[in-house]
Amino acid sequence: MPRLPLFPLGTVLYPGAPLPLRLFEPRYVAMLAELTTGPQPGRFGVVAIRAGHEVGAHSVHSLHRVGCVAVLEDVQRQADGSYAITTVGSQRFALRSVVDDEGDGVRYHVGSVEWLPERIVDGDRVTQLARVVRSRLLGYRRMFGEQTQTGEGRVPGDATALSYRIGELVALPLEDRQALLDCPDTDERLALAAHLLRREQVLVSTLQAVPGTVQAPPHSLN
User: CA-to-CA distance for 8 and 25, rounded, in angstroms?
Assistant: First the structure.
């Protein structure tokens, strides 16, 4: 099975989504050094933490099974010795096993992974679901007025891209964002997205429950 260096985070990365990071822990600086001197572009796996914390050598207790490849786009060394990197989500994968690997004498997680395909099972159903999701997403965004207005251009026309975009544009709990990533195909992901959007609309309009942030692009400090 393919092996990927892993970066456990308290967030979920989706295919096509940007992910800026600041790296300062020795294990991740060592991982970055290997990525930038190996085959290009450098890639690592982002997996959401199920139990534990991002920072600390033994802080991660368990990981979610499905993650997403992050592809390095830019690396900038900072004055304090940390690194600011920009990445973009690529392919989903399922973790089959996790071991510790050594880079420059420090250990970071490496996973044996299985690539997960992007499938559309029923094209007609996907077209219908995409129409519902797009309408509900725009309606949800309008509920927050001008400060969160993104316009039609921010909503993808592609059904698969749209199914992932919900996790970026709607302030969902980590469990819901992971559930979207876990879905085996676009059909199921759009169906879940439609349900989550309806739920969030009801919470906002009926219970006056306003999420802390409406648009929360994934980012982390590590």
Answer: 13
Helix/strand/coil (H, E, C) string of the chain? CCEEEEEEECCCCCCCCEEEEEECCHHHHHHHHHHHHCCCCCEEEEEEEEEECCCCCCCEEEECCEEEEEEEEEEEECCCCCEEEEEEEEEEEEEEEEEEEEECCEEEEEEEEEECCCCCCCHHHHHHHHHHHHHHHHHHHHCCCHHHCCCHHHCCCCHHHHHHHHHHHCCCCHHHHHHHHHCCCHHHHHHHHHHHHHHHHHHHHHCCCCCCCCCCCCCEEC
pLDDT digits (tens, 9 = 90+) for 16-62: 999 999 999 888 999 999 999 988 999 999 999 875 444 444 455 57
The model's pTM: 0.84
User: What's the one-letter identity of residue 32?
Assistant: L
Q: Which positions ≥6 away from 101 have C-beta within 8 Å?
A: 5, 107, 108, 109, 110
Per the DSSP assignment, residues forming a β-bridge with 192 are: none
Q: Are strands 220-221 and 83-103 parallel, antiparallel or unpaired?
A: unpaired
Amino acid (one-letter) located at 119: R
| Contact (CB, 8 A) for 3 and 98 | no
